[in-house]
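Lab notebook, bench 4. The sequencing result for the construct came back, and we need a structural model before the next group meeting so we can plan mutations. Quick request posted to the team channel:

Model the 3D structure of this chain.
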Amino acid sequence: MKAGIDLLPIPAAMILGGAVACAGVVWKGRYCWAIWVGSIFAMLGQGLLILLYTESSATLHWNLALIVLGFGHGALGVSILLSIQASATAGQDCHTTASYTFLREVGLCLGVAVGGTVLQGSLSGYLRELGLPEEVAANAQAFVSVLHHMNPDSTEKQQFVSAYVQSFGRVFEMLAVIQGIGFLSALLIKDQPMNLRLVSDHFIKKGRQRGVQSNV
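Done. Here's the predicted structure in token form:
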């Protein structure tokens, strides 16, 4: 419950980032700037997360990192979808939107798998250096409950916590590098006209009887 509450700044900031990106794109008629701004905020958020070690885990720092990260990803999610739709040929809007959603879900699965692998590998290495059992890395999430019942002043618990923190730091560093590559790739995107006519096989017309009849 506490972890869920602590993570609330991310979805809240994502809503704000998406709203700002939408409003800005409608106002300017361009979307590249939103992708660039979103990428910068996302990279900055990942960088702030790297700095979250045990001695710098202040609530303000933690919330600031999550807000910046969420704002960046919120702006990115909306602006990238708009750029894909604007770049699509007439009549292909549905296909491009579905492809975008599919690739996001694939990326989510890959991110979980790759991030978990990096965390497990890093944790195993740090535990080995500290002379602690490496088996903990194979079930790192479940071992957190064990940590909660350990003596907070014990050297063993402090070593375990240090290993966890440094391992998460490696994950955040990897994500920052990936986000940096994404930002460099985004610089190659060019604005496309956003005033194309929507072409669809679905339309509504008046029927002979009362009401509205739809033809598909």
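The longest helix spans residues 93-130.
Will bring this to the meeting.
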